[in-house]
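Researcher: I'd like a structural prediction for the single chain below. Treat it as a standalone chain; there are no partners to consider.
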Amino acid sequence: MTIYFPDVSAFQAGIDLAGAKAVAIKATEGTSWHNPDYSRAKTNAAGHGAFVMAYHFLHDGAASVQANWCHGGGPGWGGVGGTPLMIDCEPTGTSRPGLADVAGFIDNYRKLGGTTHLVYLPHWYWQQLGSPSLKPLEDRNMALWSSAYTAYTDNDTGTGWQPYGGMRPKIWQYTDRLHFNGHDIDFNAFKGTHPGDQSGAAVKDALRQLEAVAKTGKIPPAQTQAPVPPAKRTASGKESFRHAVNREATTVARGLWLMARDADKKTGYGPLQSAYVRRGDWNAVMPRGMVYWVG
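Model: Treating it as a single chain, here is the predicted structure.
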């Protein structure tokens, strides 16, 4: 069971994160910059029921200052606090952070009481650093977050799932241009171990595993259970399909699969369903009386 989720920064200020099951939001960079949209985006995502992570864009040097700025804040910025943090390790300008910078930030951040177990270190930048062993990160219970903008697949042969530095990625940023709620943004995949097919129970368990990775660096065993029988719903004419299935703790993919196998007709989409599906806009309000299924 795979969870697909965005990461956003100040470039997407004002974005509505409805439909996202999880999100990583840029909080800080270096020793003095913070994202002015961080608090709003965090509140918006949490209001839609998404699991929220923060991330810090690491610069080389001053690890303790960066850790203090990110976790505790300063003038005009209240800090990340207890929100699980991803460390974004890549070059910008003249800054080229290395493993020592990452390790220093981790150690200082945790001394402050912060939680960080995710590190975004793309394969291409790892090569630029000389292809070092990532054992210092593994020893600190960090989970690797890769980047490769190639065709996505859940198969272990996928580019973003290939190990490097002695670690296998647990999250893959597979595109920087997925169109979501009016923005072209980064999207990521987390492969949980639940064998479900987009059911509410499978999504819930995969999110539980993602949360555990963000908080501990480890994926706990899946909690399989009997599938929840599909439940019939009738659209009120005031809600989009994406919002409806998100509220019911399932996904668009699962909802479409169930709708195509409508338990009442057993003949596929009806007229209202067909017109809505042809439109292909899951953020559009469903017509009043349209039947859909969740579960």
